């Protein structure tokens, strides 16, 4: 930069340089440069021979990266300048023509959009793999009873398969969010120049097609200022990570000795440095613990954009590290979640025993009264009183006598004991989306179709 | 609740009661109750006559709310219990049947989804109105030159209409996010009961259709735990608010005496209690300042969901206040933004004068050298040196002599002065999406179509 | 404001007016006005008689607020203007002299600092009350064994009193943070004017003393821009709320049927609208759920300050609502926490049974080997193998035979069974801060002293 | 870990291993191990000879780290196990005794507390250096007039030195926060074991003294769960970064061509890849842009702690990366800020010209009327009307005629012109903390003392 003297202050370089992290964009930068070079031929800036030389140079650079042998220079400020500098070394001064009609502002936005588009797809794929596993588990455990909880209190029994499908649907929605982020990243900024457009008629549509974009940005100022696609990815990741944190938290609780519902696979747990007996569900804890970090990446980027005037400001350099960190942690979490849930061994007996808690039938008893004509609100009160009686006298509901129950309502008769005794409190949940076997079978079908639609 | 004694501890009531804020959901709760009551007829729980009585009671309750005369009771715990309690007072014990096959867990999720769906539409409408205004302004100011900035340094000139369209496209994307949030809120939770489904075959699809939902939730556990639709609304609102904060920040800067580019309307500004000369762009500042608050609503809700086991937990009660606060502040901001931008008076002369800064033509001079065959990277260096020369000798670029410029490159000749002199630095930005008049005209067309598609 | 015409646009008023929430500062504003009026006498602006009239007027205004009868006017923009307007109505034109040498900028900063100082004290008091209760409970439960957990897996037994003291110390640290916030709020902004100081020599030190400040702000620009004291309060509140969320989460888990360690008081729990048997630990859940909201208040204010130029900007108006919301929710949480923990009933048998799990003695067995000369790392391996053997053969550690244990290490002999049998795994934790009774007694003493120092 | 089989799943290792980042704690871990080894002698676990061997081994390990030659092994799970593993290789089986009476839970908390304590000091030192520079600049520019702003509108003139001191005081407060964080990190967790204390009477106070702690943690459960010291550091860093973001934002605005108040040093600015004329204030932009990232570190850690049961959970492993990232970015920002502000060149003429804007004297004119007996509120109205008159007729205030001004108030006479003409609008701000030269001199003294107190 001839206007400014060399060298820059060492601290400025440390603060300003993005090479430490943006080198990750090298493959996208090279692809973008290839496409831009072709467009420069169309615009009359490059001859075919010059294009050839530049493309050869870019191939060489690409191979250096692939081999891990790209020679960074001390004063490379960012990946874009590093590649251009190296290209000039390899291809000669003609490579100095490559930056015609291009700015780092539209270049970096383009690189980042390609990165986001790729990882939006990757996110979807990892979710699909996890969904597949959850679906298989839900089928396997379709008939295993367990307690369902509200407020972490036993509420009503459900099938384990039903519970696992609750996880399925949460994550299924996330796939839709990643698709939206991918679509948002489909608009190519390249050709917007520094902010105002460029002095050349480049075939932007052709470049976009070559790079896999679906359209070109309609406004140059917006194009270089815009990081919405990254925000879309990050909000999708944030919600997905929140879902994983809920799944992780449930596995942690279910793995406690007190619940004893499941255990992680031995090769997916860890011990203690001090306590030889420990088998800790670390992976589940980390699924839980990654969520705030991923959410913070979204917060960071919205914070960076807060009150930021158009067009490009250096602040936007702070978009990459949170994004990369979120991508890496989310993808690792999704991969790990798949293996974690696959390896869980559930304890059918413990689950069934907990689900057999008669108090879980309280709603069924209330509904029995409703069927006999009592308004629900009244029935709720009657059963509440029955429950209190049972607890106060330390008995099960079915241990209350005929006389006792009739004292609470004349409508209570032998059917009361039948309701408590038949263990049909799961099958009675026969509304659409309920846990009864028939509904669960329908739901498994729906999940299968939905997954098929995702992976088609 | 007969199991638990009355009364609850006063502090528990203060902590636990949501009536202070969830009363806002009353209209949705009443609509939901109407539809649920009809479904109970289908399920054989209510007779037609009972339905009639309940619907009359709900009408009466609705009117009490409409009049502001709904009589809350001291021990109303939330809006659902308040309405049911009042309904029983008005319609008699039969109203006690209404809660059959329903839980507050699915009820509140349904109310909230309806609320979100409504405000997703409202968000889109307000954006559309703002877009309309921006488009009109962009047309009006299509030919007004101003400096474009990067790093808040003058970079290249653009048309004010082009800049206003950058705002247009940012907000246009937000409309898509609200549409997605609306779609997410289109799945009806009602019929999921407390967590496991209900003991009655309710016509969920019919209820959904009556309430304007597009489908029913496939899994009861997920349905009562899920707040994704609220997260989707909040992330849309967060990004939209970030956009408004950027617009607000630009107006604040442009309104400073030093920039002097624009002034808010006198009835959209405020003075100082101490300094009589002040005219402050408060509205623009508040557009900027609202963004962190709205972003925090998203953070709050993701935080609440962090590690939260299924199904319903009381924590979910903390979903409403951040959501309501975000809705109110975003909608007010969008409304205010429309009036604010409409009332801005721009100073054409100040803008033009700033845009005439010859340094803004530096890229054009570099591109001149490129057209004469010099690689851009080299041309960039030559022009950088010219700029330094001009600054060091306190002259404009066009005040450098023929000899001087030739000393920097033999390619520099009279065309150099022509480039600087013709003021065509805007028209030269002729790439798609660039600021040149022809491209801007295309862009205005595209914006018009895009807006039409939104409001169709 | 004679420079600007009336009336302002209705939307501007809605966006700009802070009266809806800043009326809460009225008592502080009145106190500040009294002190400022006295200072104006010293500066020669007011006569004693004028002061008298103004003070009488302020008394009248104060009484109107106290009675809830303060007559707000439609165009009151904020609480400062409302009070001044009303004062002029009550005391006549002389009250128009009160705003001499004062700006809303220093006025609102002063009001807010007083508010923060008060609530920093209040926070400390509420914490002290909660600490007192925890200490009493810790004493009561000093000898009740329970399992200690890591990774929510049983790890080593502790006394319940020890666990409750862990809560004590967390909250004790919070008291220190509130003290720091109070100190930060002790610097009076009043007298800084709009930003540059004022044209009068006011006795700032005297005013500060009258209002309970400890010093005056040294720089007028900083004084009106500064909201650090609010940030300090909010970060203290955030950390305190995080602590409460951990306590709440533990109570939720402990209250589950599976753990069965404790139950909330009946008047501090709630039931279900559908399931008559439920007794939900709502208060504990809400202690947990309030934390993200309070943390978001801190985020909001740091977000508002992000990149905000000095001195006062309207953005600062967005400081109050998050602060007020955090104050109210934190104080309510602290109050509720005290009653919640006081009312918990613990189940000594369940706790003891869980603590008797022999696996919790694994570290003690390893340490036995260490005492016999084996390096700990090796001993850890030996005991790990013993544990695996026991689990694989479905026996307790003490059910392994002499031959079997000797097969793992020759050092294992009868002492092995003694270690497992003596139930001394709590008393063996005799390091400072450990759970053994002697250390716990020391700790109770330390807690008592620490609490005394706080409340002194 | 003999209970669990080897090897762990590759994905588990990737998720679980912290070695990638916690290796940074190696120096602290080694220091901690030295002190712990000594304590084991006191407890009779190690002989003097064994201690000797372990210390020699630790020295060797330390040197390997210092040389960058520490040989990590594939299955090192974290820095603690890596060092212990290596120590055993170097010092033999005796090193297996080192983990007696210690857990990774108290070990990592101790390492981290030492890290925080060091960086709390470092933060203070960097702030002190920056304060020193700001103070020197404030002295240099004590007499340079510039406009002070509210709402980014010119409000009243101030001295540049006064403005720079506003920055001084903001940062001065941050030093206090770092001191508090350092104090919070002064309580040693070591000796708390996994959660319950250890089976050995270790001289914790002695260890603490050796490691530079001021006290030992009073409760073992709390000690391994507690990350408050890290939160304290992070909230200090968040507030400090917010301050830097305000400073950065002001420099960006002041560096714009429109303000033209200052320019960064040439070696502390950067150019554009496309536009040869650009000199961008990147460092100032990055000071601004780092704040959300640092704030997010605090959010991440509070999020991780949200609802986390005691004692240690794996989630706590997510404490380190946000902390390290915040430390690195804050320290770099502080260092860079010092050089940035030192290198700013201010344009005295531009500043003075902007400060001479007569409208900035409006308050002085109002105060003139007050001195003549008019209540301020009325005077404010009169001057507002004068300002409107001047603006409407496109004149300066001093260009209004005697007749005109008398028309607004009979009290306006020649003194009006004197007030406008004497340029004493800075010197008139003579309240404590105001910008007048005498007050500024006092303030410089106070700043000097305050800085001395910090660096003493």
Would you give an account of this structure?
Four copies of one chain form a homotetramer. Chain A has 456 residues and is mainly alpha-helical. Helices cover 62% and strands 5% of the residues of chain A. The first copy, chain A, has 18 helices and six strands. In chain A, strands 1-2 form a two-stranded antiparallel sheet. In chain A, β1 and β2 (153-159) form a beta hairpin. In chain A, α6 (104-140) runs antiparallel to α18. Chain A is elongated and about 100 Å long. The mean pLDDT of chain A is 95. Chains A and D meet through α1, α11 and α12 of A and α1, α11 and α12 of D.
Helix share of residues of chain A?
Answer: 55-70%
Note the beta-strand portion of chain A. Answer: under 5%
Distance between the termini of chain A: 50 Å
Q: What is the number of helical segments of chain A per DSSP (H or I, 4+ residues)?
A: 18
How many strands, what sense, and barrel or not for the largest sheet of chain A? 2 strands, antiparallel
User: Quaternary status of these chains?
Assistant: homotetramer
Number of strands of chain A: 6
What is the strand arrangement across the widest sheet of chain A? 1-2
Q: Using CB atoms under 8 Å apart, which protein chain pair has the greatest interface?
A: C-D, 123 and 124 residues
The gross shape of chain A turns out to be elongated
The structure class of chain A reads mainly alpha
Mean pLDDT of chain A: 95
Helix and strand string of chain A, N-terminal first? HHHHHHEEHEHEHHEHHEHHHHHH
Low-confidence runs of at least 5 consecutive residues of chain A: none
State Rg of chain A: 30 Å
């Amino acid at each position: 930069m001839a206007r400014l003297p060399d060298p820059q202050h060492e601290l400025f370089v440390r603060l300003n340089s993005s090479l430490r992290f943006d080198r990750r964009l090298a493959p996208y930068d090279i692809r973008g440069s290839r496409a831009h070079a072709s467009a420069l031929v169309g615009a009359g800036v490059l001859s075919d021979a010059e294009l050839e030389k530049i493309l050869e140079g870019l191939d060489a650079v690409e191979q250096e990266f692939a081999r891990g042998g790209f020679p960074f220079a001390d004063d490379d400020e960012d990946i874009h300048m590093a590649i251009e500098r190296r290209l000039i070394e390899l291809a000669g001064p003609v490579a100095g023509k490559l930056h015609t009609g291009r700015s780092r502002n539209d270049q970096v936005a383009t690189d980042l959009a390609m990165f986001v588009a790729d990882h939006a797809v990757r996110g979807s794929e990892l979710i699909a793999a996890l969904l597949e596993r959850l679906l298989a588990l839900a089928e396997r455990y379709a008939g295993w009873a367990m307690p369902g909880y509200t407020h972490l209190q036993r509420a009503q029994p459900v099938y384990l398969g039903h519970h696992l499908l609750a996880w399925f649907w949460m994550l299924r929605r996330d796939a839709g969010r990643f698709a939206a982020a991918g679509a948002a990243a489909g608009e190519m900024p390249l050709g917007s120049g520094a902010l105002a457009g460029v002095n050349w008629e480049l075939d932007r549509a052709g470049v976009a097609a070559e790079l896999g974009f679906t359209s070109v940005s309609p406004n140059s100022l917006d194009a270089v200022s815009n990081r919405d696609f990254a925000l879309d990815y990050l909000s999708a990741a944030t919600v997905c990570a929140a879902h994983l944190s809920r799944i992780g938290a449930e596995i942690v609780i279910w793995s406690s000795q007190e619940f004893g519902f499941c255990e992680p696979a031995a090769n997916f747990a860890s011990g203690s440095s001090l306590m030889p007996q420990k088998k800790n569900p670390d992976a589940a804890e980390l699924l839980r613990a990654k969520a705030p970090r991923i959410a913070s990446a979204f917060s960071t980027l919205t914070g960076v954009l807060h009150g930021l005037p158009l067009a490009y400001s250096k602040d936007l350099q702070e978009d990459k590290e949170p994004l990369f960190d979120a991508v890496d942690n989310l993808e690792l979490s999704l991969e790990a979640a798949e293996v974690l849930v696959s390896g869980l061994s559930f304890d059918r007996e413990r689950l069934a025993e907990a689900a057999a808690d008669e108090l879980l039938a309280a709603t069924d008893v209330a509904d029995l009264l409703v069927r006999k004509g009592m308004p629900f609100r009244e029935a709720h009160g009657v059963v509440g009183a029955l429950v209190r009686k049972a607890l106060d006298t330390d008995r099960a509901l079915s241990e209350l006598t005929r006389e006792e129950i009739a004292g609470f309502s004349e409508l209570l008769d032998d059917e009361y004991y039948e309701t408590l005794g038949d263990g049909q409190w799961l099958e009675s949940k026969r509304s659409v989306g309920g846990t009864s076997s028939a509904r669960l079978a329908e739901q498994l079908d729906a999940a299968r179709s939905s997954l098929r639609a995702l992976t088609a």
